[in-house]
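Input chain follows. Return structure tokens only.
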Amino acid sequence: MTKFGALDLAIGVGGKIEKKEVLSAVENLRLLGSSHIRKLTDHDFTEGGYGWKSECNGEYHEGAERVVALSTRWYNGESMCVKMVLVLSGNGRKVRAKVVDECDSLGGCDEMHGGQPPCGNNVVAGSDAVWNGLVLDKGLGVVDVTWSMA
């Protein structure tokens, strides 16, 4: 996407994104290349959801909270815990979200954590509020996004 195309897109979604943020995101995507596009997946951080508390703060998070789990390499041994990230979707929408957990890319989850298989090494698992803030359909399952420190 060109810088002008991104600006047109931002205007088309109500101008909810600052011009400098669009230009920065487009430039970051250009520099990183398509191999650094992240995959947004859905994650239920609520009590009774997947059944475990988040690793960073030992708490459940309501569906209205904008929280994410990052793949192992980005989570980096809890160094990203409770830090804010900016998630930008292809439709020009952006949200700020708090990192509260790891999406284990190496071993997956143990039985206590749902026995999930390892996630990809480019995953951002987002709460309902992240998906809703980006105006994305969770029914898609996986959506290309990019993220940076907020």
